[in-house]
């Protein structure tokens, strides 16, 4: 979404290291069109997308997106999720603006 190859590579590798399947990792970019995610994960993905695409929407984080996330996460977990999304977006902006590009050939 943010054209940040460094974060895509890092987080994909981290997810695989914790046992996440390649199918689910590859499906993240099409999370709405797949059944590979739980309702709670879908709520987190919707919140993440809304928070990341603030400039694309009149109502950047619609009430229904926030309320759906709040159904699946208690107050502390929701605060952690929001902080994590905001932190990831900060690193995305830093990596993209400083032209950080992952070199997958040197990562292997």
Please give a structural write-up.
With 108 residues, the chain is mainly α. Helix content is 65%, strand content 0%.
Q: How many β strands by DSSP?
A: 0
Rounded Rg: 15 Å
Distance separating the two termini: 24 Å
Please estimate the helix content: 55-70%
Question: What is the average of the pLDDT values?
Answer: 91
Strand percentage? under 5%
Shape: globular
Structural category is mainly alpha
Separate helix tally: 6
Low-confidence stretches: none
How would you characterize the largest beta sheet?
A: none
Order of helices and strands: HHHHHH
Entry summary:
This protein has 108 residues and is an all-alpha fold. It is built from 6 helices and no strands. Helices cover 65% and strands 0% of the residues.
Output the keywords.
108 residues, mainly alpha, 65% helix, 0% strand
SSE blueprint and pairings:
Layout: H1 5-17, H2 22-27, H3 39-52, H4 63-72, H5 75-97, H6 104-107
Helix pairs in contact: 3-4, 3-5
């Amino acid at each position: 979404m943010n054209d940040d190859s460094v974060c895509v590579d890092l987080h994909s590798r981290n997810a695989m290291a914790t046992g996440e399947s390649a199918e689910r990792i590859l499906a993240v970019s099409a999370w709405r069109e797949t059944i590979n995610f739980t309702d709670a994960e879908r709520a987190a993905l919707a919140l993440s997308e809304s928070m990341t695409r603030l400039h694309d929407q009149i109502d950047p984080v619609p009430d229904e997106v926030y309320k759906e996330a709040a159904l699946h996460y208690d107050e502390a977990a929701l605060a952690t999720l929001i902080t994590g999304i905001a932190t990831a977006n900060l690193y995305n902006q830093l990596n993209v603006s400083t032209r950080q590009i992952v070199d997958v050939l040197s990562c292997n």
